[in-house]
Specification:
By secondary structure, the protein is an alpha/beta fold. It is built from 11 helices and 10 strands. Strands 6-7-8-3-9-10 form a 6-stranded mixed beta sheet, with helices on both faces. Strands 2-1-4-5 form a 4-stranded antiparallel beta sheet, covered by helices on one side. This is ABC transporter ATP-binding protein.
Length: 236
């Protein structure tokens, strides 16, 4: 479904992503893992059109999206859920969700989508009239993910869903992400917590210094002690 080939991107004069190539199959959950600051988030931003691609290509269902604007990429079905709790604080939960269906195609199915989001995140249904600023950190993270699902998503890219959350809340967020994956949604996940990523994704891509240095199943990527210790800080 998604093909990234020799992608180079960065900010100003600094190159962050240095020739990354990867594929994500339809219905697959793939994860980018590795140390903080090595290009995982930058890669998602390049795929979603938020920063300019310097060279290389992004193809989605065979269509070249390399030079497309971000809003056109959303209309194609690629939904980027960035790090943190990026919600509209003075709007209600339901108003935030409605904004996720801003494309003309998605807006026609907004009510149906909202029911699906409430089924996945029943706590949002309970809080639907509350202002987003009154939610807990975990609830805001659920709202950010739910808002992304309101679009006509065919591929969702979720950046660090566990960032800054207490372990018990991370358990809850990942339980709902598991439901999304099990529904057949295609997912590209960025996650520094290796155990979390491995529990959800069928394929891992280890990123170091803007390059993918190893790809495969969790067992294939994490089987060498040097890799576990050097890149992931995991000691046995």
């Amino acid at each position: 479904m998604l093909e990234v080939t020799d992608l180079v991107a960065g900010y100003g004069s600094t190159t962050i992503v240095q020739g990354i190539s990867l594929e994500v199959d339809a219905g697959e959950c793939a994860a980018l893992i590795g140390p903080n600051g090595h290009g995982k988030t930058t890669l998602l931003r390049a795929i979603s059109g938020l920063i300019k691609i310097r060279s290389g290509t992004v193809r989605f269902d065979g269509v070249d999206l390399t030079r497309e604007r971000a809003e056109k990429i959303v209309e194609r079905g690629i939904i980027h859920m960035p790090q943190g709790d990026l919600v509209f604080p003075d709007m209600s939960v339901e108003e935030n969700l409605v904004l996720g269906a801003f494309t003309s195609a998605a807006s026609k199915r907004a009510r149906q989508r909202m029911e699906e989001v409430y089924e996945i995140f029943p706590r949002l249904l309970e809080r639907r009239t509350q202002r987003a600023r009154t939610l807990s950190g975990g609830e805001r993270r659920m709202l950010a993910i739910g808002r992304g699902l309101m679009g006509d998503a065919r591929l969702i890219m979720v950046d660090e869903p566990s960032l800054g959350l207490a372990p018990v809340i991370v358990d809850e967020v990942y339980e709902q992400l598991r439901r999304i994956v099990d529904s057949g949604m295609t997912v590209l996940l960025v996650e520094e917590n290796v155990n979390r990523a491995q529990s959800l994704a069928s394929r891992l891509h280890l990123v170091e210094n803007g390059e993918i240095v190893r790809s495969g199943s969790g067992a294939e990527v994490l089987d060498e002690r040097a890799i576990r210790e050097t890149y992931l800080g995991v000691t046995e």
